[in-house]
UniProtKB/TrEMBL annotation:
InterPro entries: ArsR-like_HTH, HicB-like, TTHA1013/TTHA0281-like
Protein name as it appears in the record: HicB-like antitoxin of toxin-antitoxin system domain-containing protein
Organism of this sequence: Adlercreutzia caecimuris B7
Domain of life of the native organism: Bacteria
Classification via SUPFAM superfamilies: TTHA1013/TTHA0281-like
Any Pfam family: HicB_lk_antitox
Residue ranges of every copy of the HicB-like antitoxin of toxin-antitoxin system domain listed in the record: 8-84
Length: 152
């Protein structure tokens, strides 16, 4: 997993909150209700942007230091990213995934952390890709202990 630090500009909005822009990542924008929230949302946007570049085999731009425009704040944002951060295809909730796999929702979290299932967290909600659940169901061994012949 690569480690990245990019400069972000935070601009206060008239309606409240902040918009976030990364000058080295063209088209990478985000926003947040508070300064702290905007930085966190910006970090997630930059992580998604870089993971998408890596997934397509494109080069990640070298971060530069820019003088920030007046009326904006400048922060350096750190994040880790790799192509597996991007989950493609249909997703379902962790609760539904636990029902389909016959395990607890806590076990779903462990399976996501271990890389057995693909998914992501959005706030307090966890989403799991349907494809990874189907793959797990097709690979799941039978219940019970392995037969002695299989253990040899």
């Amino acid at each position: 997993m690569g480690k990245y630090i990019f400069q972000a500009f935070l601009t206060p909005e008239d309606e409240g909150g902040y918009s976030v822009e990364f000058p080295d990542l063209p088209g990478c924008f985000s926003c947040g209700d508070t300064f702290h929230d905007a930085v966190a949302m910006g970090a997630d946007a930059a992580k998604t942007y870089v993971a998408s570049l890596l997934g397509r085999g494109e080069t990640v731009p070298e971060p530069q230091h820019h003088s920030h425009p007046s009326g904006t704040d400048s922060v350096m944002v750190f994040f880790e990213a790799d192509p597996t951060y991007i989950v493609e295809g249909a997703v379902i909730s962790a609760a539904e995934a636990s029902r389909r796999l016959g395990v607890s929702p806590g076990r779903i979290t462990h399976m996501l952390d271990a890389g057995v299932l693909d998914g992501y967290r959005e706030g307090r909600r966890t989403w799991v890709s349907v494809a990874s659940i189907e793959k797990r169901l097709s690979e799941t061994p039978k219940v019970g202990r392995p037969r002695k012949a299989q253990m040899a």
